[in-house]
Write a structure and sequence with these properties.
This protein is mainly β. The protein has 2 helices and 17 strands. The N terminus is likely disordered.
Length: 315
């Protein structure tokens, strides 16, 4: 297990150089991104003919005080008779004394491309972010160390705007988005680019394969990838492995490694689904024994049926 002094050293290095480090960090992400496209791609709004609510909670470095904890919710409204969709998303990300909160509203037009349910979603995201630094939970060795208390943390909502497009069929999708276009170094905001793709492949009458790929990149860090392959049984149960790359920066030394995980879930009813991920990291010194938990709750409101079977529900 990681020694407690290594965690404290890690947090200290972050907070002593807060304006620089946070600005260069990646945005919060989830292992079960394939169930929560709405959080980063506004073109997903209205992509279904029913509404849904998704809640995700991720806990990293379990067992250590101040470890990262992230909660997210997304309401995706159904498209109306004019093919317009509206959605809202929210996120709270907490690591040590730093907490960031984000709220966004999405509006998308789902352009129908043909009669085979092929659509192109063109979306606009309006968002606001709020940061809070709680220095009361820190216990510096030097009591008069004012470095921890002089960081210029914004105390007001910072508005932003983004866009996304999302092409989808009943069994395939891909999309590209920039959730927040406006960059501001003072408020640690940097532009992130997202590319997603995935689909459903029938292996038998009762088994389907669901591959998913997420690419995330910025101007100041290498491309981050996240790949998973889920087996989907009887349109009710899914599980499979996940692989993602990880980057750690310590004392100006960049370490690269990988995150491995196992995703599992079940549709408890026609409307309610739950999911779970257990993940770990390999290849990064001092952080190879850490593990993370992630939970998914999803509820679909009055989904319509197509014949005997419903439309695929895991996009």
């Amino acid at each position: 297990m990681i020694k407690r002094k290594n965690i404290l050293k890690f947090f200290s290095s972050i907070f002593l150089m807060l304006p620089i480090v946070i600005f260069s960090q990646q945005e919060s992400s989830f292992n079960m991104y394939m169930f929560n496209h709405q959080s980063f791609n506004s073109g997903y709004a209205g992509s279904k003919n029913y509404s849904s609510f998704t809640f995700l909670s991720r806990s990293q470095w379990v067992g250590f005080e101040g470890a990262p904890v992230t909660h997210s919710f997304a309401y995706n409204g159904s498209r109306n008779n004019k093919n317009l969709g509206f959605s809202i998303t929210g996120l709270v990300d907490r690591i040590g004394p730093l907490e960031s909160s984000q709220f966004a509203a999405d509006l998308a037009y789902q352009l129908k491309l043909n009669d085979r349910k092929h659509y192109l979603g063109l979306g606009l995201k309006l968002s606001a972010s709020l940061f809070d630094f709680n220095s009361d939970i820190l216990s510096p060795q030097q009591q008069q160390d004012y470095t921890l208390y002089t960081n210029d943390i914004p105390e007001s909502l910072e508005p932003n705007i983004g866009f996304g497009f999302y092409y989808h069929t009943p069994r395939f999708y891909f999309g590209y988005s920039i959730p927040r276009m406006i960059q501001d170094e003072k408020y640690f905001l940097i532009r992130h680019n997202y590319f997603i793709t995935g689909g459903l492949i029938s292996l038998s009458n009762s088994i389907e394969l669901k591959p998913s790929l997420l690419l995330k990149f910025t101007s100041r860090s290498p491309i981050s990838y996240d790949f998973s392959t889920l087996l989907y049984f009887n349109k009710s149960i899914w599980f499979g492995p996940q692989l993602k790359n990880l980057v750690s920066i310590s004392n100006d030394v960049i370490q690269s490694g990988a995150g491995i995980g196992l995703i599992a879930g079940i549709h408890i009813s026609n409307s309610f689904s739950v999911g779970y991920v257990f993940s770990n990291s390999i290849g990064i010194r001092n952080f190879t024994d850490t593990y993370s938990h992630e939970f998914l709750l999803r509820y679909e409101f009055n989904p319509r049926a197509f014949g005997v079977l419903r439309s695929p529900r895991i996009f």
